[in-house]
Amino acid sequence: MDKMNNQHIFTFLKKLGLLAIPLVAIVIIYILADPFKVIRNYPSFYKSGYPCYINLNRDYVSTTTLDNNYSTVNYNSFILGNSRSGFFEVKDWKQHLNNNPICFHFDAAGENIYGIYKKVKYLDNKVSHIDNILLILDYSTLSGTEPMKGHLFIISPQLENNRNIFEFHLEFFKVFSNPKFLFAFVDFNLFGKIRNYMKYGAIFYDMPIYYELISNEVRFPYVESIINKDESLYYSQPSNIFYMRTGEVKYSPPCIYDKSLMLLEKIKNVFDKHKTNYKIIINPLYDQIGLNEDDVRSLCRIFGTENVFDFSGINAFTNDYRNYYDLEHYRPHVARKIMEKIYKK
Questions:
Q1: Whose CA, among 137, 177, 204, 272, lies 20 to 30 Å from 37?
Q2: How many CB atoms lie within 10 A of CB 231?
Q3: Tens digit of pLDDT for each residue in 190-215?
Q4: What is the mean predicted confidence (pLDDT) over 37-60?
Q5: Helix H segments across the chain?
Q6: Which CATH architecture best describes the domain 57-145+209-342?
Q7: How far apart are CA 136 and CA 133, in angstroms?
Q8: Is the pLDDT of residue 290 over 80?
Q9: Cα–Cα–Cα angle for 253, 255, 258, nearest 5°?
Q10: CA atoms 93, 315, 330, 201: torsion sign
Q11: Distance in angstroms (rounded) separating the CA atoms of residues 334 and 26
Q12: What is the per-residue DSSP string for 96-160?
């Protein structure tokens, strides 16, 4: 009887081992390939002038780039916010600042106020001075008071004292082990081409980018060159997404409540501690929905009316679709004009 039981156990373990082989193989390939660049350290996460091919977690890129460089680069000025904040270019911002600012884009995709607070707290412990801050906000940023999910949005372990490190890496492995991603990953590595089906879910990306390592700035001169070459053609493509707005004045629902108020107050306390010169910008979005007036008043009460600039709703920026790349992102010349307005002496 014992011999028969042992045989059954051996057979079970053998089958279990055979079933585990594909998983072990996927784990090994994942570690060796490190497609999302979250396992090994990289001096630079992007190669300027080329596509990144597989979209990276911008929060992790920003935080790790800061970690890699802050001991030799005395950063003292920071641009915070979601992907829209990336269009506030350092060369333009520097023109409005004093005392040799050394600037850094500390942004994240889909950033929320929780992530911004964690970054400000991280800076408070990491760098000697926070002389200047450009804080870019909108409804989606202010309404998020909890850590985000998803491999493109999950917050960096460094910002959470590594408490989320298992969850962080699990998010990436889940995406990698998805059959749809694995098929696309093998296809790309065999043929070196990003096909349309791969772009679903914003995982693969084939647009060339310009990247400046020290400032962590990403720019898109390729798109700008297309627009400048033939603006009418760019905006008249069959895929044109710029719908007609009604012109009706609309506001978002209130989003600044107890927790977001607490986070904003803590951010302000760090600014006060460092005697920071800060400006708060509310994004001009294509939907022309203004930030709730109570939320604007809350921001003014915390940061001072002289430091809060509301460009949401209907205005000269949002009226012109040519100010936008898409429904979510305005172009750098908009950010440039905003800075000229807010820093006007």
A1: 137
A2: 11
A3: 998 888 888 877 789 888 999 999 99
A4: 95
A5: 2-33, 58-69, 90-93, 113-126, 139-142, 165-177, 179-191, 221-229, 231-235, 258-273, 293-303, 316-319, 332-342
A6: 3-Layer(aba) Sandwich (3.40)
A7: 10
A8: yes
A9: 140
A10: positive
A11: 45
A12: G--S---EEEEE-TT--HHHHHHHHHHHHHH-S---EEEEEE-HHHHT--S---STTTPPPGGGG
Q: Which residues contact 117 (CB under 8 A, 6 or more apart)?
A: 263, 266, 267
Residue 235's pLDDT is 86
Q: Do residues 163 and 22 make contact, with C-beta atoms less than 8 angstroms apart? A: no
326's CB contacts (< 8 A; 6+ apart) are: 241
Judge contact between 288 and 145, C-beta under 8 A: no
- 135, 89, 91, 71: which is closest to 267 by C-alpha? 135
Cβ atoms of 90 and 218 closer than 8 Å: no
Residue 192 DSSP code: -
Per-residue tokens: 249:
């004045």
Mean pLDDT over the full length of the chain: 91
Nearest to 116, CA basis, from 151, 146, 81: 81
Q: 168 near 158, Cβ under 8 Å? A: no
Residue positions counted in the chain: 345
DSSP 328: S
Tokens representing 18?
């055979």
Beta pairing, strands 289-290 & 250-251: parallel
The β-bridge partners of 132 are: 77, 277
Q: Tokens 């305005």: give the residue.
A: 330
Task: Give yes or no for a contact between 113 and 260, defined as CB atoms under 8 angstroms apart.
Answer: yes
